[in-house]
Amino acid sequence: MIDELDLALVDALRVDPRAPWSALAGPLGVDPATLSRRWAKLSAQGDAWVSCYPAADRFDPGLTALVEVECRAGTAAAAATDLAGDGRAVSIELVSGRADLLVTVAGLTPTQIGDYVLTRIAAVPGVLRTRTSPVERTLREGSRWTDGALDPDQRAAIAATRPPGLADRGPGRSAREDLQLFAALGADGRMPYAELGQRMGLPATTVRRRLTELRASGRLVLRCDASPRLTGHPVGTMLWLDLPADRLPAAARWLSEQPQTRMCVLTLGEANLVAYVMTHQLGAVRILEAELTHRFPAARVRDRQLTLRTAKLVGRVLDPTGRAVGYVPIDPGEP
Questions:
Q1: C-beta separation of 116 from 105 below 8 A
Q2: Per-residue pLDDT reduced to its tens digit, 42-55
């Protein structure tokens, strides 16, 4: 049975993943000690976690690609496990449709992504072929999705507590230094500033200022995720769409604004618009497709990929039940 307070807590941390418990107590109507205790239990069980990673389209340099992988029968799960330990493989899903695996790959240049696909993924036992679709632009990022457990007033109250920050990188600091912060924070996005400072060898005040700045600029993403046990086993479907160039911007904007859409990107591949849709019934995605094609008759669905199991989610390694059991820092490679 889904615990409504746990679900509300996760949704609150989707609004602000580093909000202090004292800031969430009022909107959720629960004392800070209870929230802290609930989160500690969820984290220990692997049922909820906060991840940290660079936003590829706002972090220069930085690129991502969606790589479809076809495998020989009976080898897909082993291939997913093989790739899960790689920092370049950000997320890995076992899917239905024309591919067996869908791997989100990070890199700093197209060459780096190509080398990883051609020399690493292609060499995994059982892999037959790959298709790579570089991401041109991200319109909706996965951290913005919500289960709808909070009402608008609760969400607004939590968002109001988030401190403002500067949008520019501090003088004399390199992208590599920022990546070190991502790696240190990746295992626990709610890590206290004092502990984070110790890990990086910096004063806590410096770390706080740098983190606030990176969040305000959009270069750093904090994301709260939860296991299917907690969220009621929602159905995830990747839609691969193709539209004429003159209709693409409007269709992409509409699709990215739908509450079911967790992720929406423009891609350079057979499909030029890809969206990951979350529903609670298998057939519900058809309703969204019908509305899309009604508004944009030229849209064509190239493929639908139902997520059968998520092996890795933005660096977090998951067991077959969807619980977090490990973390592999995202490593886009050397500049």
A1: yes
A2: 999 999 999 998 88
Q: What is the DSSP string of 173-234?
A: --HHHHHHHHHHHHT-TT--HHHHHHHHTS-HHHHHHHHHHHHHHTSEEEEEEE-HHHHT--
Residue 190 φ/ψ region, left for φ over 0, alpha for ψ in the -120 to 50 degree band, beta for the rest? alpha
Extract the tokens encoding 55: 């936003």
- Rounded CA-CA distance 142/234 in Å is 15
On whether the pTM is more than 0.90, the answer is: yes
Q: pLDDT tens digits for 281-303?
A: 888 999 999 999 999 999 999 99
The residue written with tokens 């890809």 in the block is: 274
Neighbouring residues of 306: CB distance < 8 A, sequence distance ≥ 6:
95, 96, 97, 235, 236, 237, 282
Closest CA to 335 of 53, 63, 136, 103: 63
Q: Are strands 89-95 and 235-242 parallel, antiparallel or unpaired?
A: unpaired
Contacts of 186 (CB under 8 A, 6+ apart): 51, 52, 53, 315, 327, 329, 330
200 Cβ contact partners less than 8 Å away, ≥ 6 residues apart: 180, 181, 184, 207
